[in-house]
Amino acid sequence: MSDMPEVLLVPVDGSKNASAAAAYAARMAEKLGVPVQLLFAFPETPMDMFGWPKETDRAEKLQYYSPGGFEKLRDETAGAAFESAREAMGDSSVSVEEKIITGEAAAAILDHSGSVKGGMIVMGRRGLSRVEEILMGSTTQRVLHHAKCPVLVVH
After folding, report:
1. Is residue 38 part of a domain?
2. Is the pTM of this model over 0.85?
3. What b-and-e string marks burial along 49-82, b requiring 16 or more CB atoms within 10 Å of the CB?
4. Is 65 domain-assigned?
């Protein structure tokens, strides 16, 4: 890997922390002359997200098990997260690509970053308390500890 990143990988989820990371990455990318790749992680199947449907599940939830229903949910959710990130990035001249990755968030980010030459991950810190982070962990913590590329956490 070179000394400087060749692309900034920015996981987004629509949160204010992810938006702050996207804004920071846009400024950094402009100065470095590198592109930004916005990443949205989404479960691979409805069962990964919701588990097996139960008789007590409401129609709103069951619609995501139908053909096309889960893809629609993924696309709408990703679209909102990408829009929030782009708003935070403002009128940046940097090249931005949007990419949906599948799987559990930390694993999907780590897998994707491992396949990108010269990548650097720029991500927001999740808003958990110290006790919650110790008990539950966080996507940011897992990425930070297992990434094979540089990781910048925006707080």
Report:
1. yes
2. yes
3. ebeeeeeeeeeeeeebeeeeebeebbeeebeebb
4. no
For 7-17, how does the pLDDT look when each residue is reduced to its tens digit (9 = 90+)? Answer: 999 999 999 99
Spatial contact of 118 and 133, defined as CB atoms under 8 Å apart: no
Distance (Å, whole) CA 42 – CA 24: 23
Domain that holds residue 97: 7-42+79-154
Return the bridge partners of 37, or none.
Answer: 9, 97
- In a domain, residue 52? The reply is no
DSSP 8-state symbol, 76: H
Spatial CA neighbour of 9 closest among 101, 133, 74: 101
Query: How many C-beta neighbours within 10 Å does residue 155 have?
Result: 8
**CATH number reported for the structural domain that contains residue 128 in this entry:** 3.40.50.620
For the chain, the domain total comes to 1
